[in-house]
Amino acid sequence: MTADPGSAVNRRPLRSCGVPAALSVALLLSSCTGSGPRGAAGSGGVGDPLFPALGNGGYQVRHYGLDLDYDVKKGRLDATADLTAEATEDLRSFQLDLQGLKVSGVRVDGEDAAFSRKGHKLLVRPAEGLRKGAAFRTTVDYAGSPQELTDPDGTTEGWVKTPDGAFVAGEPAGSMTWFPGNNHPEDKATYDITITVPQGYTAVANGELRSQRTAKGHTTFRWQNGRPMASYLATATIGRFEVHTSRTPGGLPLYVAVDPAEVRASRGPLAKLPEIVAWESGLFGPYPFASAGAVVDRTPSRITWGALEAQTKPIYAGAPDTTTVVHEMAHQWFGDSVTPKTWADTWLNESFATYAEWLWEERRGGKTPQQQFDALYKDAPHNKRWAFPPARPGSAKNVTGPAVYERGAMLLQQLRNAVGDRTFFRILKEWPAAYRYGTADSADFVAFCQERTDVDLAPLFRAWLYGEGKPKRLY
């Protein structure tokens, strides 16, 4: 923890056992502990079909406590991460995802632990083995200049430096550029994020602002996110923002932070937040979190995408239009509360958010969802929309391809036609209720829908969810 916002962070030294930290975990432990504790070596990766190196086996994180001190001018981060986790098997070692940054010490349950680095993996060997079912606490002290990532599709994410701070977005892998963790959507946890920045800057994270204190030229913001969250949805965006707090007519707190250059263009769409939350709550069931809001930043030109559904506070790369706000807020149910088990299940996020756009347009007197479907279906078979089935993207570069968004939404319209409006709109509410704060995959959704109708949905999902090429129009 940062003892004084105006002073250097005090770190405990690593017990190195007289060998360089760059040596392998096995060599470190043989010199320190002899034969060492028994148990498995926790795996690096959880078998994700698109991103096999993300996430780690052997444990489940329950809570992250992140204490960040960011020097905006130098672009330097000094930080401590406290992870409370549960071992899912007997472990003699485990791994965390952390890209770049220098680790100065690791402790497990208060005892110094040996560690080494390989790629984006931080390998940790506790002094004592961890028993299956045991809760344990890992503390990592680290520092450096966080770097952004280039995704397989060529887009930029992670800790992206801006002239007045940082634009922090984590889909699919970017959270590991600023904190160590189990970086896979299946591992969800609660978060406390404390961020210290120079006075005059604002630091925004997920959840609710519990305190804001200024001393000796620095301001510390303490954020608490009490509902489970996937790591890719975490943010710690820093800048000179105009901040507006309010409540919806139903009493939901709103926190909106906007770069001054984007205030005018953002005002109209963001003013609709209360209306959008109320309308989507009517469609999808009660809003799943204790607050809502938005962060609008002025980003570098290399940020070529528009927004990310950071939990409770979507972050926008420039002023959004109203349709984008509708899309990102729909993700609070589909993606944030109900999170995909693997990155191949991302269509479960994007299809519903896209369909919410269609319903909003109809509500405003525009095209109906069926008209949206008809217009898209006219496109030729070689259109990118038909390049791969939504549930089988094939490669990491396709995780946010047109088929995930548009063909996924078209599938939902076909489902609506097959089961009828009454059942379809029941599904829109009951699906996020059944998997609230959890994870789900494509098979879960197929079974969930089939349980609610006597119509045989197998041909529909076979063609529209898993089939290659342009599927036939079944309904």
Automatic annotation (TrEMBL):
<dbReference type="Pfam" id="PF01433">
    <property type="entry name" value="Peptidase_M1"/>
</dbReference>
<feature type="domain" description="Aminopeptidase N-like N-terminal">
    <location>
        <begin position="62"/>
        <end position="233"/>
    </location>
</feature>
<comment type="similarity">
    <text>Belongs to the peptidase M1 family.</text>
</comment>
<feature type="domain" description="Peptidase M1 membrane alanine aminopeptidase">
    <location>
        <begin position="322"/>
        <end position="464"/>
    </location>
</feature>
<protein>
    <recommendedName>
        <fullName>Aminopeptidase N</fullName>
        <ecNumber>3.4.11.2</ecNumber>
    </recommendedName>
</protein>
<keyword id="KW-0645">Protease</keyword>
<dbReference type="Pfam" id="PF17900">
    <property type="entry name" value="Peptidase_M1_N"/>
</dbReference>
<keyword id="KW-0479">Metal-binding</keyword>
<dbReference type="GO" id="GO:0008237">
    <property type="term" value="F:metallopeptidase activity"/>
</dbReference>
<dbReference type="InterPro" id="IPR050344">
    <property type="entry name" value="Peptidase_M1_aminopeptidases"/>
</dbReference>
<dbReference type="InterPro" id="IPR027268">
    <property type="entry name" value="Peptidase_M4/M1_CTD_sf"/>
</dbReference>
<dbReference type="GO" id="GO:0006508">
    <property type="term" value="P:proteolysis"/>
</dbReference>
<keyword id="KW-0862">Zinc</keyword>
<dbReference type="GO" id="GO:0008270">
    <property type="term" value="F:zinc ion binding"/>
</dbReference>
<dbReference type="InterPro" id="IPR042097">
    <property type="entry name" value="Aminopeptidase_N-like_N_sf"/>
</dbReference>
<keyword id="KW-0378">Hydrolase</keyword>
<dbReference type="InterPro" id="IPR014782">
    <property type="entry name" value="Peptidase_M1_dom"/>
</dbReference>
<dbReference type="InterPro" id="IPR001930">
    <property type="entry name" value="Peptidase_M1"/>
</dbReference>
<dbReference type="InterPro" id="IPR045357">
    <property type="entry name" value="Aminopeptidase_N-like_N"/>
</dbReference>
<keyword id="KW-0482">Metalloprotease</keyword>
<dbReference type="GO" id="GO:0016285">
    <property type="term" value="F:alanyl aminopeptidase activity"/>
</dbReference>
